[in-house]
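subagent[fold] <- orchestrator: predict structure for attached chain, return tokens only, no commentary.
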Amino acid sequence: MILSYRLWRNIFDGDRSIVGQAIQLKGEAYTVIGILPQGATTPLDANLYTALQPSTRWQC
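subagent[fold] -> orchestrator:
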């Protein structure tokens, strides 16, 4: 996952060692791969971003 700068500062106290660590989110483990720079804007202004995972319900 990628964390927003605000979330990283407020929840993880700006701890740089969080990069590469796994975080539990809704019972799933996600590895932090980066932190957005301060002032970065994104279309959804989300606090974190994860990769899309394919659903087991989809059939091709």
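orchestrator: received. Logging for downstream: The mean pLDDT is 88. The chain has one domain: 2-49.
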